[in-house]
Amino acid sequence: MRPPVKLDKFKAYNERAMKMKKDPQLFISHSSLYNALFICLQQNGGITPFFVNRRILMSYSNIASTATYHKCIKKLVELGYISYSPSYHPIKGSLISWQEEIA
């Protein structure tokens, strides 16, 4: 595991948002989840990796279905936007690493 990194969060956000806008594989649910992850990154002081709670992310992103949430997380990982390590711990949450560069 890499050491924590403080990102230039707004630059990284803008770069990823522009890439997502052009990606035909992504839908509004992916963008909503991405925005929810950005909120959590901000709440962590811009330091990645950070822990997230599925319930909170679903609330922030207005995703009602657990299946949709998991499909979106999986796609964001597959495309290199994030790294995701599920914890299955009800309080600690899963670990997200915001990729510094996207393929």
Domain unit count: 1
Low-confidence stretches: none
**How does the helix and strand content classify structurally?**
alpha+beta
| Secondary structure: number of strands | 5
| CA distance, first residue to last residue | 20 Å
Strand percent estimate: 15-25%
Instruction: Sum up the overall morphology in one term.
Output: globular
Main beta sheet, described? Answer: 3 strands, antiparallel
Strand order of the largest sheet: 3-5-4
CATH domain topology: Arc Repressor Mutant, subunit A
Overall mean pLDDT score?
A: 85
Topology summary:
Blueprint: E1 5-6, H1 9-22, H2 28-43, E2 47-48, E3 50-52, H3 54-61, H4 66-78, E4 82-85, E5 94-98
Antiparallel strand pairs: 1-2, 3-5, 4-5
Helix pairs in contact: 1-2, 2-3, 2-4
Give your account of this protein's structure.
This protein is an alpha+beta fold and 103 residues long. The chain has helices at residues 9-22, 28-43, 54-61, 66-78, and strands at 5-6, 47-48, 50-52, 82-85, 94-98. It has a single domain (5-98), classed as Orthogonal Bundle (Arc Repressor Mutant, subunit A), CATH 1.10.10. The chain contains four helices and five strands, in the order βααββααββ. It has a three-stranded antiparallel β-sheet with strand order 3-5-4. It has a two-stranded antiparallel ribbon with strand order 1-2. Helix 1 packs antiparallel against helix 2. The longest helix has 16 residues, at 28-43. The radius of gyration is 13 Å and the shape is globular. The model has no long low-confidence stretch (mean pLDDT 85).
